[in-house]
Amino acid sequence: MAVSKRLRYEVLRRDDHACRYCGGRAPDVKLTVDHVVPQALGGSDDPTNLVAACDSCNSGKTSVPADAPIVADVAQDALRWAEAMAEAAELAREKHEVRRAYRDAFRKSWDEWQFGPDHSQQPVPLDASWENSLDHLYQAGLPAWQLREAVRSAMVNPKVTPANTFRYFAGVCWTKVRELQSQAREIIDADQVPSARSVDKQTIDDLVDRWLVSFRARCKEKGIDNAVDSSRVADTAAALLRQGYPEEQVKVAAQKAGSRLCVHLTDFLGDSSWGDFTFDAMAQWVLAWSETDPDCPRWRSSVPPVDAWRRFRVELAGAISAGLSGERIISACRVAGETHEGILVALPDWERRWEHEV
């Protein structure tokens, strides 16, 4: 059975477009996909039996069985590659689910409206590319509740025909996005993000040791070679701590990453991680603020004002410096956003603890 184009592409990418026998790289050599155990000797088309090979190495090997170390090496790479692909697929699925929920929130609001006489009302038409338009609005950061407001604005405008309703709705949404962006720039100009934390070497060593223990245990379980350079783990752990991630959260991420034979700790920080704890906490605060029901008496603006931002940043810097857990800080940020406050009132004795710094 011939190797498919897709499988050939994946094997070449897994092997970094280099011959596994001599190390030659494209475009210096012409690469193909070779069976480690030849098909004439019963070799399969499974990725664990396929490698990138240059024409010279491939033509010289004929039907001679490959050395056992090469077969074992390819099997290890294939296993890691398969696990990495599964991880990437899961992350893609999660992102897809979030986008789908955003679209569903829009459709629920849109489908509530109809036009025409009472006895023969019809649905308001949607553009064929409405899903792509919603994806762009989601990426731009427009909250779901503002979608509902924009739908209502488009539907009640007597000058907008049913055929042009979605186009008008999109225009309203992008106006709201520009307003958010303008206020975000004002906020950024008004103050700076709290300074990064300092990290001591012993803490990094402990995190790397935790990762190594988990990594070696998984290697032993799978029966594969456990030789690895842990310097990337140390660099990643240090960067996460400087960004403000609590030490306990990084420890958990290190252990999970090791058990998956992975050095990318950021992939295991939890569902709410956006790559920087300080930014993540701020985003949760802003998101909770923007999701507040516009009919609520406390509601004043869909985006926190500059003075609330300044107060919040001092609060957040104090909470991180105090070493509080990420879960407690994020929870307090959401409560503060829901109540339109810049103070983390959900933390015990918080006002008395930090009032001299605010």
Q: What is the structural class? A: mainly alpha
The low-confidence parts are 62-66, 192-196, 271-275, 354-358
Kindly state the mean pLDDT as a whole number? 76
Give me the Rg, rounded: 27 Å
Number of strands: 4
Describe this structure as you would to a colleague.
With 358 residues, the chain is mostly helical. It is 58% helix and 4% strand. It contains 13 helices and 4 strands. It has helices at residues 5-14, 55-61, 68-110, 130-140, 144-156, 165-190, 201-222, 231-243, 247-259, 277-290, 306-321, 326-338, 350-354; strands spanning 31-35, 50-54, 114-115, 122-123. The protein has a two-stranded antiparallel sheet. A two-stranded antiparallel sheet has the order 3-4. Strand 3 (114-115) and strand 4 form a beta hairpin. Helix 4 packs parallel to helix 6, helix 7 packs across helix 8 and helix 10 (277-290) runs parallel beside helix 12. The radius of gyration is 27 Å and the shape is flat. It starts with a helix and ends with a helix. Residues 62-66, 192-196, 271-275 and 354-358 have low confidence and may be disordered.
